[in-house]
Design a protein that fits this description.
Length: about 240
């Protein structure tokens, strides 16, 4: 019995010692790997620093390059005064609706924008939209706020002082019944009564012109809307 027990004890001791040797070997390997990885990282950092220093221009050239880049960026930055970001022209369809053929920018700007069409049907615009939840304004809107409303899918009815009062009243009543629409006076336009949506515009002869209903049906939240479902209330009020 004693001999057998001594044999088992010796075997356990030998097994424990073997495990300890294996653990010490594993730790040595880990230390070697860590040291090697650290060395590689240091070499990489040094090499990267050399590349950066070698590619860095002298102070005077760096300053001039930075100034040139800022100047070019400012010159092209959307929102510079007068920059609508639009290009192209209107194409008139058989129904009289004019469709803008070209680019209509959609950047938010806080400056006054000069649009290539009146009323504008798209382009850079103010971050705040004009309330267009069937809203009838008695004073002119800012173009930049109105364009944002068009981006949300609104139809904008505008009229000049030459429009008949009966037509203005009838169109105002229609707008009040129609979410995603708005109305305001606008003198700088081709005809007395104009309807606009994003990228679309039509002049109508009167409030009873069949094109009024067709335009509303097609373009209130129509397929041309860049941001369908975006809010039309709680915007820039009169």
């Amino acid at each position: 019995m004693g001999s057998a027990e001594n044999s088992r004890s010796a075997a356990r001791t030998a097994h424990i010692e073997e495990m300890r040797r294996a653990e010490r070997a594993r730790r040595r390997r880990n230390r070697v790997l860590i040291i090697a990885a650290s060395a590689v990282a240091v070499v990489g950092l040094v090499a990267g620093g050399v590349v950066l220093l070698g590619s860095r221009p002298n102070d005077s050239n760096s300053s001039n390059s930075s100034n040139s880049k800022d100047t070019a960026s400012d010159a092209k930055a959307p929102g510079s005064p007068g920059d609508s970001g639009d290009s192209g022209h209107f194409v008139t369809g058989k129904d009289g609706v004019r469709t803008w053929s070209g680019k209509l920018s959609r950047n938010h700007v806080t400056t006054k924008v000069s649009y290539p069409m009146h009323p504008p049907v798209g382009g850079n615009h103010n971050p705040v939209w004009a309330d267009c939840n069937g809203t009838v304004y008695t004073k002119p809107l800012r173009d930049e706020n109105a364009v944002h409303s068009l981006e949300h899918g609104a139809v904008w009815v505008t009229y000049t002082s030459k429009a008949q009062k009966a037509d203005v009243d009838a169109l105002a009543a229609k707008v009040r019944r129609t979410p995603y629409s708005m109305m305001s006076p606008y003198e700088n336009q081709a005809g007395p009564l104009v309807l606009s949506a994003w990228g679309r515009q039509v002049s109508v002869k009167s409030a009873t012109d069949p094109e009024v209903d067709r335009f509303f049906a097609a373009y209130v939240q129509g397929a041309q809307t860049p941001e369908p479902g975006a809010p039309c209330s709680a915007g820039e009020m009169k």
